[in-house]
Design a protein that fits this description.
The protein has helices at about 5-25, 30-55, 155-165, 165-170, 195-210, 220-240, 305-320, 350-365, 390-395, 440-445, 465, 510-534, and strands spanning about 60, 90-95, 110, 120-125, 130-135, 140-150, 175-180, 185-190, 245-255, 260, 270-280, 285-290, 305, 320-325, 335, 370, 375-385, 405, 415-425, 430, 435, 470-475, 485. With about 525 residues, the protein is α/β, with parallel strands linked by helices. It has one domain (about 70-534). β19 and β20 (about 430) form a beta hairpin. The chain is globular and about 65 Å long.
Length: about 525
């Protein structure tokens, strides 16, 4: 090495040594830490994106063929008054989807990544599908809602269920078919993420190139086919068993039962209850809408359970009711079993059971009022870009089967998902959301520029303001696209309290869904104004 080069190197080394304390001091600031978090994110995304780019791809639809109108778009109008002679009718059905060979087959539990994966080795209680069909007697159509004890269900599978009842739906004038998940983390994997991921990375590219379709994932295809067929059977059974009666509703603050693990710590603490009483005195049907993660058995659990939603339904059934639990906007909302919500001195399982039963009894104590027989629903298909490279890799590997179209190359995919809006009477509003939404998007309180990860404002009205009244959310409805985080607080996976970004389609998911929801609501209002003028 030349002397001149040695001198230069020495000067640079001395300069670096002198600058090191100043650099360390800057990196210890919030801005410096954010720089490091973002750099780590960029590096990880670069690796994951590189792996995705060399994978072969299955044939996908083209974005140019996309239309926002789904097969079951909902009702044609949103009347303010009941039709002449209108009255509620409702039917209920339920069934188990536990496999007969549960102890012989290989079934993974969906909800927690583990190595090796959590393989089911026992059954604590059943894994169910519960279904309700509702009609207001106006002749505008029947709406059906099925809810599955599982971590999530893709739009691909929802559409497969709809296809199985297509002819029946046409005959019975079913205009809205919805399938959601309780989001229990202790049920058989229905998404595919929680199986042998290393085997999928090794095997699935070869299967894709050879045209095979039995991809390696956490999903068992025989189980999924039974799930789809059972859901279709229950839809038929619920519709055929519809009986006239009266519908009642009530809203009660239940925020003492939950806690938010992520700033800005906003809760949708309202528990919404619907109760249908048939005229013939047969069993009433109760639907409970609440937001809390059913993750109480923990990441090492290998025993199948519907978690607290199952125990909630179990308690209501003891009182002679049919029961359903609908998951809400529960981004990072956890259960709170302390503070007197459950008795002290119980085992973990006894405490979880007691929590679900306490929620049931809380719903049973809700003051109810009669709902006018007006059922209106609207659905809209939406394209959501996949910018999260973890989600992209899972999609490219066919580990998950969410429908996607190509925008501008095989690594530029957009999820085909859907949103919806349901109104019962004139005061009960429901947003149908295809994932796990932050509560603040629905009710307000999003982080501002001074508190958000990006240093920007959110910039959108809460959905409650958009619908013009109290709002309940049916989350994981007709799809599971992961966490839905306000764009301005979408941060690095490496940053504290930003775990949810790892299981999200991407940074602009929330704004895209909110914009499309606003478009849908504006279309409804325009149609209503036009009918008023006419």
């Amino acid at each position: 090495m030349k002397l001149k080069t040695i001198v230069k190197a020495g000067i640079l080394a001395a300069g670096a040594a002198a600058a090191a304390p100043r650099i360390k001091k800057k990196l210890d600031t919030p801005q410096g830490k954010k720089f490091l978090y973002d750099a780590a994110d960029a590096a990880a995304n670069g690796v994951l994106g590189g792996v995705s780019s060399v994978l072969p791809d299955v044939k996908r639809g083209d974005i140019l063929d996309f239309t926002p109108t789904p097969e079951f778009p909902g009702t044609e109008d949103f009347p303010a008054l009941p039709a002449d002679g209108a009255r509620w009718s409702l039917g209920f059905a339920k069934a188990s989807i536990l496999p007969e060979n549960i102890f012989e087959g290989t079934y993974y539990l969906g909800g927690y990544l583990a190595y090796p994966p959590n393989r089911a080795n026992g059954v604590l209680d059943d894994q169910m599908i519960r279904c309700v069909a509702v009609d207001d007697g106006s002749g505008r159509g029947i709406a059906v809602f099925a809810v599955i004890d599982c971590v999530g269900i893709s739009n691909h599978d929802v559409n497969a269920i709809r296809a199985l009842v297509r002819d029946f739906a046409a005959e019975r004038h079913i205009v809205s078919i919805n399938v959601s998940a309780t989001h229990s983390h202790s049920c058989i994997d229905t998404m595919g993420i929680w199986g042998e991921l290393t085997a999928a990375l090794k095997t699935n590219p070869v299967k894709i190139m050879s045209g095979e379709e039995d991809f390696v994932s956490g999903r068992d295809e025989a189980f999924m086919q039974n799930l789809r067929e059972t859901a279709a059977d229950l839809i038929r059974e619920a519709v055929e068993g519809m009986r006239p009666g009266k519908l009642y509703s009530g809203i009660r603050d239940a925020s003492q039962f939950i806690r938010d693990k992520r700033p800005p710590e906003i809760l949708m603490g309202d528990m919404t209850t619907l109760l249908f009483r048939p005229d013939d005195g047969s069993a009433p049907t109760r639907a409970v809408f609440f937001a809390a993660h059913p993750t109480q058995y923990g990441e090492k659990n290998k025993i199948i359970s519907g978690d607290f939603p199952n125990y909630l339904c179990e308690r209501l059934e003891e009182d002679g009711e049919n029961a359903l639990y609908f998951q809400g906007a529960q981004l990072a909302v956890a259960t709170e079993r302390g503070n007197g919500n459950t008795p002290e001195g119980l085992s973990r399982n006894e405490s979880i059971r007691a929590y679900g039963r306490a929620l049931a009894e809380y719903s049973a104590g809700t003051a109810l009022s009669e709902v006018e027989p007006i059922l209106s629903a609207r659905h809209r298909k939406v394209l959501v870009g996949i910018s999260n490279k973890v989600f992209l890799l899972l999609s490219r590997l066919q580990v998950i089967d969410n429908d996607a179209v190509i925008r501008a190359g095989k690594n530029d995919l957009m999820l085909v998902t859907e949103i919806g809006y349901l109104r019962l009477g004139n005061k009960l509003h429901f947003a149908l959301i295809p994932g796990e939404m932050a509560p603040e998007i629905a009710v307000g309180g999003c982080a501002g520029a001074s508190d958000s990860y990006t240093g920007e404002d959110w910039g959108f009205d809460p959905l409650e303001k958009t619908v013009g009244g109290k709002l309940a959310v049916i989350g994981l409805c007709n799809d599971e696209i992961g966490y839905i985080i306000p764009d301005n607080d979408f941060g690095s996976l490496a940053a504290p309290l930003h775990y949810e970004e790892s299981v999200s389609a991407g940074k602009h998911t929330a704004s895209k869904l909110v914009k499309e929801f606003c478009v849908m609501m504006e279309e409804i209002r325009t149609e209503a104004d036009k009918e008023t003028v006419e």
